[in-house]
What does this fold into?
Amino acid sequence: MEQQEYATGTTRVAAGRPDGRTGGVGRGTTDAVLAVPVVASVPAAATRSDGPPAPAADPSGLAGLSPDPGLLRLAHWFAAATPGTADDLCTASFGLYPARHFGIPADTAADPDVSWWHGPTAHAGAVRRSRAARPARGPRRARRDAAALPAVRSGAKPGTPGRHRKPERTRPVAAAQDRSGQEQPGTEQIPVDRLTAERRIAARLLLAHPLVTASGPHADGFPLISRHRDWLTERFDTLLGYRLVVGPWHARLCKAGLGPGAARRLEHPGTGAPFTPADYAQLALALALLVDAPEQLPYRRLLDAMRAAAPDLAAAPAERAMALAALADWQVLGDLPADPADATSVLTVDRELARAVPAGPPALAADAADLIRRAADAEPATAVRRLLAETPAVLAADLPEDQRAWLREHRLSGPAALADFLGLEAELRAEGVALLDPADELTDLALPGAGTLSQAALLLVERLVEDVRPLPGEPTEGDVPIPDALIDGVLGDIADEYGLPAGWDYLADRTALRRDALDLLHRLGLVTPAPRASRPPSWLLRPPAARYAPAPDLLPAPGAGRHSRPAEQQHA
It folds into this structure.
């Protein structure tokens, strides 16, 4: 409840039904509290039994429906924000994002000082469309044999760059070795005792779903969270600085923000459409009214109250529908009408869950940027551990100096503590650290994954790595520019080889494919926009991207391939 004490002039009073439950949607608690306006005392004459009867109470209980000031302020911040800032603001104010980790571990262990560009990989080819075998083209930066070729050929004729490639300046490159052909390591972990197993299951569930209810889609894990609440509370607080609140009917892990530019956007639970600033504004506005709303709330009354509370935040029906769908997915609202135009239905409100959604008080921040900064503020150890627990990879170059120094000093012990807590595997490289989840469960995005977009993104990133990967002796610490024409050329080659005959209708819209594939790779931290707006290049390839390309041959045989260097240059 601490995060809900936004309003001024309110007091906290006990609330609930005779059976001790308060909420809608079949949940409640015996110690629920409400923030209600403090009204002036009623004159004694007005309460005398012989006086005129008091006015009848509003049977619907809606007369006092008013917005929470802090959440109403947040709604206006959302409306004024750019799309990226709105995502950051959502992450900072609600903290309901899931963790995101790479799944497949590298083929073999590697020296922690080896670069991702030149280390072992987790390369796994995309599904090849059925077609006759094609002759191998000339070697590129990571040449393979025919058995490993299906996912990485460009579709060009032997010795040519592909008809979609624009001429590029080339430089001498080293040939690469073939894949070993060994099976990927199994995902089975060393058996642990039941107590440790239960605690890991509960911790992983909370990190993936920070709001778990006793009657929701993850209800099976709720008893484990309740059983180990004390241990989980201490561990989350010690390692990550997160506050865990476990009640009789729900568990809420209050995550911190991730700072500017590291946000997790909110998406429609049914369609996957990303929220816009206007959608976020309607979400905060609805939540501002629901934290003190009655259990049964006419849909029309909610819409009217939203318009009255913020007339300057006029919204289209689709924007309100996005907001209410998210609240229904979190079980704050029940009985949501299937038709957004149906204003005659009555909603079931769970005030307890409505109050559990905000993770930080916006009333303490001066503006949106201040809230984003405050939510991510932490000592170096906690800040780095949060990034390790929530993001695919942590690169030292991205960290401020104090956090980089901590990671350098605790390079082994820091990731190891989180890996043991969550059942993950640490992958140490020269550029940074990634915590891997071989079970491929603790992530909201998977690569490789099912679907055309995931397969096309996998093909795109492995071929980009082959073309622009730093050679031995070149700097490997930073990102590598990707020529803009190279992206279009690779996508053209992918469409040629994996086009409509394989059922990949998505590839017919090259513009949408480029946009969505780069967006997926960006969200996974494999590419990032160039710091300047001019093009080319417009994108940079990040070192962890090399995990998804075949490993290079750092010492190829002299004269092997048209791009190979003379032996004396290789060993210079």
